[in-house]
Amino acid sequence: MNVLIVEDDAGTAEFIGEGFRQAGYSVSIAHSGPEGLFKAKSESYNLVIIDVMLPGMSGFDVVKRLRQDRIMLPIIILSARNEEENKIHGLECGADDYQTKPFSLTELLARANAQIRRASAVADPVELQIADLRMDLISRKVYRGDTKIPLQPLEFQLLEFLMRNKGRVVSRTTIMEHVWEYNFDPHTNVVDSRICHLRDKIDKNFEPKLLKTIRGFGYVMEEP
Asked: Regarding beta strands 75-79 and 47-51, do their DSSP bridges make them parallel or antiparallel, or are they unpaired?
């Protein structure tokens, strides 16, 4: 599970981050509103925990922008502002929960786990589709139109990750972390090699082309 913590106070961010790491999460930290917005839109997370008072853009505005862009991952606002109107405003912006400071790390973890369970139960699909490319997550079969595409297990996992992040550019490092679940040398070509083989299977003999390389950034699956 991957959590993004958007908190301008370095001590608080590290305290929360260490608690989530000990609970088995992979943690990323952003220290401003614009940085948090960029990371939430460009990487794949299971949860965002965000402060309200942030440099550059408030937590409320970050949440609004994410929802406007139809990024529906769970968001918990963490704030010292405990007035009822602030809580209501945060929820109306699109947050799923509002936790006031000072807080119990144990309670925050419990709230986080509850939000992730709820999101998984509601949103986990049985089929993914982009244009005429279909992936059946139950039978683990992939089709391009009426043509069945044979994939190796790792290719299936790679394609599933890319399709779940439809329209979002994912970096090589992110792919390594989420598909292989451990880090390679960042200069290795293992991701590029697997992408090349996958592209030959799902795009080479079909139109439109769906798997695109964004030079200097990574890869994206999207309709033309």
From this structure: parallel
Burial class (CB in 10 A: 0-12, 13-18, 19+), 150: exposed
132-174: pLDDT as tens digits: 999 998 888 999 999 999 999 889 999 999 998 888 898 888 8
Helix then strand count (H, E) for the chain reads 8, 11
Query: How far is CA 162 from each of CA 105, 129, 168, rounded to the nearest angstrom?
Result: 33, 11, 8
**Predicted structure pTM score:** 0.57
Domain architecture of the chain: domains with CATH: 2-123 (3.40.50.2300), 127-221 (1.10.10.10)
Please tell me what DSSP assigns to residue 101. Answer: S
Nearest-Å Rg of the Cα atoms of the chain is 19
Beta-ladder partners of 51: 78
